[in-house]
Automatic annotation (TrEMBL), chain A:
Entry superkingdom: Eukaryota
Domain AAA+ ATPase: 134-306
Residue ranges crossing the lipid bilayer per the database entry: none
Protein's name according to its UniProt entry: AAA+ ATPase domain-containing protein
Bias-annotated ranges (Polar residues): 22-32
Organism: Jaapia argillacea MUCL 33604
Compartmental location: Nucleus
Any one of the GO BP annotations: DNA repair
Entry keyword set: ATP-binding, Cell cycle, DNA damage, Nucleotide-binding, Nucleus
PANTHER family assigned: CELL CYCLE CHECKPOINT PROTEIN RAD17
Pfam families: Rad17
Biased segments, Acidic residues type: 649-660
Main location group: nucleus
TrEMBL record, chain B:
InterPro entries attached to this UniProt entry: AAA+_ATPase, ATPase_AAA_core, DNA_pol3_clamp-load_cplx_C, DNA_Rep/Repair_Clamp_Loader, P-loop_NTPase, Rep_factorC_C, RFC_lid
Matches recorded under CDD domains: AAA (cd00009), HLD_clamp_RFC (cd18140)
UniProt keyword annotations, A-Z: ATP-binding, DNA replication, Nucleotide-binding, Nucleus
Main location: nucleus
Localization annotation: Nucleus
GO function terms (MF aspect): ATP binding; ATP hydrolysis activity; DNA binding; DNA clamp loader activity
Protein name, entry field: Replication factor C subunit 4
Alphabetical list of PANTHER family matching this protein: REPLICATION FACTOR C / DNA POLYMERASE III GAMMA-TAU SUBUNIT, REPLICATION FACTOR C SUBUNIT 2
UniProt superkingdom: Eukaryota
Protein family membership: Belongs to the activator 1 small subunits family.
GO cellular component: Ctf18 RFC-like complex; DNA replication factor C complex; Elg1 RFC-like complex; Rad17 RFC-like complex
SMART domains to which the protein is assigned, alphabetical: AAA (SM00382)
Amino acid sequence: MPPFSSSQSSGSKPNKRLKPTSLRTTNLNSVRNDAGPPSKKFKPMPSLSQPPKFIVPGNSNLLSSSQSNVKGKGKEKATSTSRAQGNENDQLWIDMYEPTAEEDLAVHKRKIENVRSWLNEALDGGPGGRLKAYRRILALTGAAGTGKTATIRVLARELNLEILEWKNTVDESFAGDDDHDDEQGQSSWRNQDYEGLMQKFQAFITRASTCRSLFSGPPPQSQSEAKPSTKTSSTSSPQLNTSSKRRIILLEDLPNILHSGTQQQFHAVLETVAHSRDLTPVVLIVSDSGVRGEASDDRMASGRGRVKETVDIRTALPSSLLGSQWVTEIKFNPIASTLMTRALQSMLTSLSSSSLQHPSKETLDMVVESSNGDIRSAIMALQFACGARQPSFEPQGKKRKKGTTGNSRALLEAVTRREQSLALFHLMGKVLYNKRKGDPPGSSATKKDIQRDKELDAKIKDPPPLPSHLQLHDRRSSRVDIDAIYGDSPIDSSLYSLYIHQNYTQFCNEVDESEAISEWLSWVDYSGGEAWYQANPHRFHLLTMGTLHSLPSPVTRRSQKIFKPEFFDVLSKHRECEDAVEDVLEWTRDASQHTNLLGGFSRSEVATELGGVLKALDLTGRHTVPPSHRRFSLLPFVKQTNSTGIALNEDDAGATEAPDDVPTPPRRASSVDRSRESGGWLEEDDIEDF
Amino acid sequence: MSSSVAKGKAKANGTAEAYELPWVEKYRPSVLEDIVGNTDTIERLKVIARDGNCPHIIISGMPGIGKTTSIHCLAHQLLGDAYKEGVLELNASDERGIDVVRNKIKTFAQKKVTLPPGRHKIIILDEADSMTGGAQQALRRTMEIYSNTTRFCLACNMSNKIIEPIQSRCAILRYSRLRDAEILKRLLEICEMEKVQYNDDGLTALIFTSEGDMRQAINNLQSTWSGFGFVSGDNVFKVCDQPHPIIVQAIIRACLKADIDGAMEKLSELWGQGYSAVDIVVTIFRVVKTFDEIPEYTKLEYIKEIGWTHMRILEGVGTLIQLGGLMARLCKLNMKPELFSI
């Protein structure tokens, strides 16, 4: 790969790393060569407060490529209608219909407003101009597909900001040739002191705030005087400072912060960003990876040495910054079903002109309900299900159409990912209604149903008799084919037991029945062992049979609803509290250095005994107690009479109710929210205190 | 698992006459039309194969139900001759740490390949649930940036082992377990083509031993045929090296009659034939769950005891004593409790 010979000759050492940067940047490099690219100079990372003022070819593509990326997206909207015909087969819908204006976003207005005001304050300093120093890092968190990145991109366009996005680069020793033998690779690494990804990252952050991309237009202030001539460095050079106001750094593709060394360096960079006033503000996007739904999750939660396998806000940010005034966290909620339906519909109307098959409203509703607030997966599912027309169905009349919808329904069931799909609903219904041979037909049963039941019963043999001492356990034979539901089960046995656990009480009449089911649940749990290879492999069968055996027969119908397990909410609350305890522990250590009041607390002491003291300190307002303590010191054990779980419904209407508008879990959440707002979110008035 | 190792190589030397291909390879479907089961989903994949613009997909399901095969068929039908340069396949045996995601996958994603409109390069990640969390994190942005040139197809056993952000970027297809009838149909087709002699008992045994895993069923069919020249129940169990269910049924019957001596005698017979404790306990479970001579409650208690013993054996105590203990507990359940009062 020969392209960069010029830069190599001017650099002090031939640097293998520089070789395979993408072709796109070739002309850039030749333009910038006179800026002097000695790779040697930036290797020992200069302190970030005095950033180097040159552009190095190896990294310049970081700036420029992201820039061109933004541009490409801007163009997309303009031409999307005209070329919809030609190109639609070539792109994913999520790319084609990326929102470009605020009204296209399916995100709640208030969130957008929060982000916008942060951006304004970060760049212009807010109303008093003083907030700027504290708007250093914005962390956008929330589940995947809730519009975090889209919001930033839309607002950046609206506010005319330039987004500089960090991308982890390709390591050249790999990129060049896949089959270089190890020795050679090793030696070449050793010879030319290899610049790690983290050094590049540090350099990127520094450079992003001082250097301008050639493609960016002149800064808005200068627009009147300087002609908007493009691609000249003459306008940009004297105005480095003004231009740096109008840009933000977007960190989405984080370095591997699960590796502790990298994490430390990453944290160090962020701290520098936070404490400096000159560097560009950073927007950090952290998607919740979510609990993976494994049995090991709760064990990890209970054990102290919880292994961090997931990236979340606490791993991404150093503890010193978490909850500090330099960091603002905005949490995105799952997208409300009304908003999502609207967004999908408007997307489909722009589609309808083209040749695509238009999905029915029913299909759309199903996509929305099964996406669980994740708009990206909703669009993905929609594209997969309705993307191309099916010629075989097209010419037929109404009769055939009915078949199509049934077909697409079955298909969507297979496509959508979330557990509350129909399959799960049927599974739970089959088990919990415990239908047995000879059950009287339900009041709503049609003739056909009765006939079907009869046929089924005829096939089921009566069970052989139990020995006399076990007569108590005699049951009529079950209509449930356990092997069949095992084969169709969309969930593994640990999640299955969570569902049973959440729901069994509604279906029992007597306390004995509940006792028996919980006995089986506990047996299944107990025989799980500590690790996957010890797990009892027959748990699914055991639990199903145990539940069927213990339930009354027939189960009294009292319009039971099946709920999703609360386990995961509880688990994440548990983790939050654990983290809060950690915060307070940290604080006591700090505080003990100044006073003799506190110190020497253990974790459990903090959790069990310190609550009162913390509340008192809160009231006096003299000490800066970390506000997160309220998560464990204020535990109003308020439980609503009915289960607070979310109903798992055949048409799952309740699941995605606008979570933004309803403060669902009543007191606790709101108190935490308030505390976060008053403590975490720094207002203009607070500034005098610092 | 030997079959999965052979998987990759087989295509290359398919022409050699003397060497007999594993039937799993020989009869591996090469077009989506031939794939058994999951008709709705496959139907959809066919449309995609014809029209192009394949979204990112995750296929999840049990082993041996055609996940990888569907992806390969899809890729072949989409790319045709360009398969070689247009597809990057990585499975669990390849190194798939974070640096590979960063380097190999990204390099491939950046590569220029001339493809007809609507076609994209495809990266196949087999057994994606075994990827580390970090590697999956690194993947997520890559998927987005290069989505206009490269699409990802992931296959995994449990889709909940894939992190949410990736799930969010993919259409997720859940394959359900193959029905016995579906496996039987395919087995019959292969028997026809290979001129295998069989009896019904043999086919039943193949389906019993495969537990819905097509790959295993075909492998067992081939081994039985090449080993014995006739597919009968006995031969299949010999080849699969599993205790014969008839003997296990006899054991269970003895337990139901609380005849511990009879049960132990049969058990020792199996043990003497050299079956491991895991083999025996697994077969006992399979027999019990479908054995209709057992009342429901007894079945439940039996499975409880079997599961418990299975767990102990997996923990490392695979001894005859464990199995004997299981026999004793199974017998005791059918004896009057008064007999045990002191």
